[in-house]
Every structure is written in structure tokens, then in C-alpha cells.
Specification:
The protein is an alpha/beta fold. It has 12 helices and 8 strands. The longest helix is centred in the C-terminal third of the chain and has 18 residues. Thiamine diphosphate binds next to α3 and α5.
Length: 302
């Protein structure tokens, strides 16, 4: 059932507890809370190594009120697939009666780079799992190194003059595997995101959600701006909110008048070194224009 209001989501029980060690304003905490609320109690969460895992599982405490598995960077999708297959076998042999939702929450490094091979395998085999990439656009947990998902122009400790390549197209990769369902999400649009998680899980999978996750430390901004930045990513066309189902892509949040990309970039210290370089800004604007043309967003407001 789709969420008609944020209130209907808010009324659901929480399975992600406060008191974790994620930074104030960290978008990953909000993603974890929304995902577990929607997925409910009959869910198993799998995470590769990364900020979300390290900060929510400091032994002997845990933030997860559902079964949770931490696996190596390379194999989160394979581990989730294996658990699902084990469930199938136990149900078939009538050893258990209840199925479980298998949801992976992987960072961009664990998804776009190091775990990509096992993710591709799971998507191609048609595993009934939901893989969610919380994308903070760098290897944050180990000190802000660039990943394949770091956007053009962004500073990281290993791209000090700004990233020189465009962000890897993870949605394109998922759709090329002909997944059951794929979608993009932003915490500034909670209802849209919650409905996508619900669809991804209820359709059975393989499903993929690519969720932008502002990182206060790595993106260099004031923690109070997390939701604003999440919204500006959408309003500038750099993060179109859309879904893919049965071979068709559909925009889920219209942007009739886009804002210039500089509105998004100027709030983040990681783009400081390119803000006075018009040719660099033009490259990022042209990337956003390309996405806008592809997904049907409006023109930049004058
Ligand atoms: C095979 C392997 N390589 C490197 C590491 C070290 N490592 C642990 S967390 C991490 C960064 C994770 O980045 P990402 O997946 O983007 O998640 P984030 O920390 O940004 O949330 C790295 C490089 C590791 N644990 N295993
Ligand atoms: Mg990351």
C-alpha cells in the first residue's frame, strides 16, 4: 500500500534506534530509519563495511532491531542472495513458515566499486533482494577518498584538485541488468522514497535504489543543511527522482523550473576550488542539462 502521507510512515514502528555514532546531520541515519520503518520486522539487513556499519554496531551495542549481518566489502549482494535462498529452502521443507525481506544497505564505494561484481551477479541471477546504495560520493569511513561515484569537480583527499571524471551511472548499470525495479531517492522527499522502498520490496526483486546521501564531513557543509542540500540536488536536476519498472522509466517528482547547479555546489566546501572557474561550472551544468533532457525535467529558471 503506498504511503499517502508522511504521517502514515511516522506511525510505523522504528527498527533503527537513536544513540548510534553517525555524525549529526548524517543522511545515512535518515535513510536507515526510513528503510527499516518501511521494510518492517520481517527483514534482514545486510551491510558491507562503511560508515553506516561501523557507526551502528559498536559491540556490544547495536542500532538494529531487526536481524543484521555485516559482511566484507566485496560480497554484500552475494550474502543477501544466499540468505534468501536458505529461506526458500527452509520454507520449501516446511521448517519455517515466514519469509523475510532481504535488504542490503551499501555505501557507494561498496556498491559502485568494490562490491560491483557480486551486485552484478545477484541482479543478473534475478535474486529476490533489494539493494540500496546510500551514496555519499566517496569512501567516507576511511577519510574521504574518491570513489567511482564521486561527482565531477568534487574535492576528496585523493582528488585534491577536484574529481576529473563523471560519476558512474549506477542506475544505468542496474537497468542494463533488466532488474525488476529500480529507483532514485532523496531524504528531502520522504514520501517518494518510502513508496519506492515499499515497491522495491513488495515486487520481490532484484530491486535497486540509488539514494543520494549528503555527508557533512566529506561534503564540507553545516549539518543543518542536509535536507536543503538533498532538495537542491533534485531541484538543480543533478539528482532526478525517477523509477524504472517493466522496462519503462518514469519521473516521480516533477521539476518544472530547474535551479542552476551553482545553487547546489556553492553550499558545499568540496566544490570550493571550482566555484570561480566558469568552464568547470559549465561542465557540471551541461551534465545536469543532459539528465534533464533524458528524464523530462524543465529548463533552468532565468
Ligand atoms: C576490501 C576492503 N578494502 C578496503 C577496506 C577499508 N574500508 C573500510 S570502510 C571503507 C570506506 C567505505 O566507503 P563506502 O562504501 O562509500 O561507505 P561510506 O564509508 O562512505 O559510508 C574502506 C575503504 C575494507 N574494509 N575492505
Ligand atoms: Mg561512501
Amino acid at each position: 500500500m503506498p504511503f499517502k502521507s508522511i504521517k502514515s510512515l511516522e506511525e510505523r514502528p522504528d527498527f533503527f534506534s537513536p544513540g548510534h555514532g553517525l555524525c549529526p546531520g548524517c543522511g545515512a541515519a535518515q535513510i536507515a530509519r526510513i528503510v527499516t520503518k518501511v521494510a518492517g520486522k520481517d527483514t534482514i539487513i545486510v551491510t558491507p563495511t562503511g560508515c553506516l556499519e561501523v557507526s551502528t554496531t559498536t559491540y556490544p551495542a547495536t542500532s538494529w532491531k531487526v536481524p543484521y549481518l555485516h559482511v566484507a566489502f566485496e560480497n554484500a549482494a552475494a550474502a543477501a542472495s544466499g540468505i534468501k535462498v536458505a529461506y526458500d529452502a527452509l520454507i520449501r521443507k516446511k521448517k519455517i513458515s515466514k519469509d523475510a525481506n532481504l535488504v542490503v544497505l551499501g555505501g557507494d564505494g561498496g556498491t559502485a566499486d568494490i562490491g560491483l561484481q557480486s551486485l552484478s551477479g545477484a541482479l543478473e541471477r534475478g535474486e529476490r533482494i533489494t539493494y540500496i546504495c546510500y551514496d555519499n560520493e566517496a569512501y567516507m569511513n576511511t577519510g574521504i577518498q574518491r570513489s567511482g561515484a564521486t561527482p565531477y569537480g568534487a574535492w576528496t583527499t585523493t582528488s585534491p584538485a577536484g574529481q576529473k571524471t563523471l560519476k558512474k551511472d549506477l542506475m544505468g548499470m542496474a537497468m542494463a541488468h533488466r532488474v525488476k525495479y529500480a529507483a532514485t531517492a532523496s531524504i528531502a522527499y520522504v514520501r517518494d522514497a518510502a513508496n519506492k522502498v515499499e515497491k522495491a520490496i513488495s515486487l520481490g526483486g532484484p530491486s535497486f535504489i540509488h539514494w543520494i546521501q549528503p555527508c557533512t564531513v566529506g561534503w564540507r557543509y553545516d549539518p543543518k543543511l542536509t535536507v536543503k542540500i538533498s532538495k537542491l540536488a533534485v531541484k538543480t536536476g543533478l539528482w532526478p527522482l525517477y523509477e524504472y519498472y517493466e522496462g519503462v522509466t518514469k519521473l516521480t517528482v516533477e521539476v518544472p523550473k530547474r535551479l542552476p547547479v551553482s545553487e547546489y555546489l556553492k553550499l558545499q566546501g568540496r566544490f570550493r576550488q571550482i566555484m570561480n572557474k566558469p568552464e568547470e561550472l559549465a561542465k557540471i551544468q551541461s551534465y545536469a542539462d543532459g539528465l534533464a533532457g533524458k528524464f523530462g525535467l524543465g529548463p533552468v529558471a532565468q
